[in-house]
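Form 12-C: Joint structure prediction
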Amino acid sequence: MTQSFDDTELMAFADGVLDEPRFSEVAAAIEADPRLAERLELIVAGGKAAGAVFAPLAGLPLPGELTARVKAAIAAHEGRVVPFRRRAAAWLPVAAAAAVAAIAVGPIAYFAGGGREAPLVAIGAPLAPALTAELGRLPSGAETRLGSAVLRTIATFTDASATLCREFEVDGPLTTVAVACRNGAEWRVAIAIDAPPANDGYAPASSLAALDAFLGSIDAGPPLPPEAEAEALARP
Amino acid sequence: MTTAIGPLLIDALPRLRRYALSLARAADVADDLVQAACERALATAATLDDRQRFDAWMFRIVRNLWYDRLRRLRTRGEEFDVTVRDDLVAIEGEKLPERRLLLGQAAAAIDRLPDDQRELLLLVCVEELSYRDAAEVLQLPIGTVMSRLARARRRVAEDLGVESGRVL
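Section 2 - Result
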């Protein structure tokens, strides 16, 4: 065996990134030369030792505070709608424990009271008339009963194409967080998420990650102040 | 402008924290470092042009912040001794005493490496960056990265004894 291999090549071989024909040449040389095999083994063992000491650190549970602070930084940077931030602050202790139950892809399994089997919130479909009427007039921060459900309006904003949208929550067996956008006289649901119910209404902040992503994707503007909201809702 | 790196940051948090822990060795310092790096990343996301290299880009931010911080401490006459606060929970959590001993020896061997070798070992053998991405993080030619990394790995194994290295 006249060929020689330096440690760099042995390492590239060990890491599986040495190209042919060199790879096969190293493989053959190792078979034939125990001293070369020993050098290879040192290089492999040194790397494995580092992995054994440090790799498990990524499996440690993330401190909730770190996650919350990074999420807040992301939210602040993306100019996210203010009410979320206020809510996120209020729900920090809950956030870690709660998880999004489901992102709805069809009619949400929640029905208005009175035995009428019509979904109150269904993606892409026009809203139930009662809900349409309330979204068109109820100021953000208000609450009203719709059959056995409670509707809570959260914010009103416009998207990149100046379409008027509202974020709202419907409390029933589950809390559904949704955004509906106005299309002529109709409100269409753009996204709806079932969140586990929280004690005092308001979906836990952690349920809102998907909503945040959605709002980012439509380039949602800041929430309209009350007067501007009333004016926008009154405008056809 | 809306940036899309938020979800990438959240996904990367466990690894960023591991890397920060491996640099700072103290959980509170590491968490602070990760947060600062995420904020820096959000502010400078426009400089990220290739999604594939998000990891390398983030590790570079964490590393640079860490060395900035060390430098600032030093100019103030303070020294941050990483061996005083060693939050290497992975070792404490190891149940088998022999293995715990070995892990402790390996950690000590890695600590004895020169800084430039140790940081490469961490990036490639712990964070699993490619040689090329590690070269990007450290702004070094790839040839330097490879020879330095090979030296680091060999040195740790020789220090530890190849028998021990084999067990780990």
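Section 3 - Comments
The CA atoms of residues 81 and 117 of chain B lie 18 Å apart. The radius of gyration of chain B is 17 Å.
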